[in-house]
Amino acid sequence: MLEVLHRIVQEVSAATSLEAALKVIVTRVKGAIGADVCSIYLTNFEERTHVLMATDGLRQEAVGKVRLPLGRGLVGLVAERAEPVNEADAPSHPRYLRISDTGEQQYHGFLGVPIIQNRRVLGVVVARQVEPRQFGDAEVTFLFTLAAQLAGAITFAQASGELTGLQQAGETFNRFLQGRPGSPGVGIGTIVVAYRLADLDAVPDRKTDDVAGESDAFRAAVAAVEDDLRRLKGHLSEDLPAEDRALFDALLLMLGSDTLVTRTIALIEQGSWAAGALRRTIEEHAKVFDVMEDVYLRERASDIRDLGRRILMHLQSDAPRTVDYPPHTILVGEEVSAMQLAEVPKDRLAGIVSASGSSSSHVAIFARAIGVPAVMGVTDLPVARAEGLEAIIDGYRGRVHVSPAATVREEYRRLALEEQALSRELEPLRGLPAETTDGVHVPLYLNTGLVNEMLHLGAEEAEGVGLYRTEMPFMVRDRFPGESVQVANYRNVIKTFAPRPVVLRTLDIGGDKPLPYFPVSESNPFLGWRGVRISLSHPEIFLTQVRAMLRAAIGFQNLRILLPMVSTVAEVEELQQLIQRAHDELIEEGFAISKPSVGVMVEVPSAVYLAEELARRVEFLSIGTNDLTQYILAVDRNNPHVADLYDDMHPAVLRALQQVVDGARLYHRSVSVCGELAGNPLAAVLLVGMGVESLSMSAGSLLKVKWAVRSFSRSRARQLLQVALRMEDARQVRRFMEGVFAEVGLGGLVGPAGTH
Ligand code: PEP
Ligand code: MG
To answer: What is the pTM of this model?
Structure first.
């Protein structure tokens, strides 16, 4: 049965229209459970009807015509209960409804199962039997299991058919496709599909007699790809720092590696033609990464395949494809690669949409670095049918509107104008102090680690760096960076901001930030080996990093070191000893270093309860609300299935923050918030009320938060906090603060653009 189930789901997923998908389902289900009829009704939410969309057994003319009002008949009962209904003799059921159009009067056995997506009943699959028949457990569970997997495939097929219609008829599409935010902002433009340059999977096995000729062709193709990569790297050089460009170096290295070239040549020497040998080599390599649990490592498989396709393209023809990119290009792909992104002239790129991937994918990292909106993981997007269509992408909410109706376009134009108006309104705040109306100074710091966040506004506006995420330069390399590379890196930021404080966080890998060259395979990475847990098991990595930080700060007095993912007091004590050791060694080696202040990130629940004990041991605490929220609410911060439950304004989170502030106060230690919450103006006011001393955020939030801070007194912020702390859910807190903001004329800071 499992086999049959898999096959049906696969066939449905491959269907190119809703009609084709539903046809597969009814035919296959009818056969699999030996029913006389199988039909599918889909819910039309606007019309409030269930529409017969496909049938195997009833009259075909009835398809599209039979419409059952919601709540009527046995189909209505299935949808209403969102549960299977299994009736041996349907006509004797009080809810039975006879529909003459389908000629169904002679059917007795009835089994209906709902198709559900995100709690909504999208439709009902119905099996019928002429004779009275109570469907058995095996049939019920089969249909039930199948239906649970169908919703995604049906919505994909539906979008696919609709997009084809759009391309042919130029109509508009009145809904949006949901993905995950990859990079904030709104992009409006024309879709260009970043399709596979060459289809490696389609290359057949073929024999050759001309080993020398095939080897030469392969080597020439590799050389050509090397040239391409260097050219693309050159394209990016203005926007990205050396460490980000290191991805291209890693690809170049892979190209030149023995494993790739030698293995392919060996296969050619065994008699395979170059393209076939290449396909086998690339597949062998990519498969190793494909099976890995880590998102980041799986991404490497796509890098390898992308390389393979590029080589194949050169094997197949000499000229790389040239694309005419429209002035506002929305680049769309199954899995957009960093290289495809680099192909688009920078001034023409309005947005990026990737059907797969997440915010930790390479392409999302690049998009944020160059400030282009991106939406990731749009699984319902039929990429191949989207070329040339107009699209609006909403990088705040992770939405893609294809061929939007005029009203939607208007709404986003308005949003874009509002964003511009807001920027103009914020402009005069530059250089003004971040002070409450009663004179409490709340330093606003910058979260960085990516180059664009440090440029212009950030460097001018921020009173320092509150969080420098050091893992970025580690992630884009193919090995751990050495001490001197790290010194150069940290010195850059320390010098740029001196004498303003710079908080460098020690390596926080693991969780959703694995390193390609340091594989960690765990079933629960967020509860596993991450942050300081790795530092403590690999003191050599930690010591190298701390030495680099201390050396980078020579001549400046602004370095602070921050320890991520601390969950016990013992961790802090051991790490402090290691920092002391690095310090003593450097002094012995003759470096004129000074002692940095050390702080702890509070981002797991145990650290909240230990705030007092931690504060006693270190100079400052910094609250990482991104992780703290996921751990307090038990919601994976990257999982779209539970994204609705993730809310950092949840009263449980706010109450935890208050506890941290109170704990630190006993030892007169300062508390900062460096998670996304600090950059949300609504929350910033509550944090000020709580007694949080400084806030650290990305550059784009600095002026917005400053405006909010300057609009309230500390005592008003305290009152608002008291009200918020008594609330029971996050939505209530948000609505309350939105109301307050509207009252004081800060309505412009609310909404997707204002609250990111
Ligand atoms: C956090 O967890 O809130 C935080 C600032 O760190 P990161 O987002 O890098 O995990
Ligand atoms: Mg964190």
So the answer is: 0.72
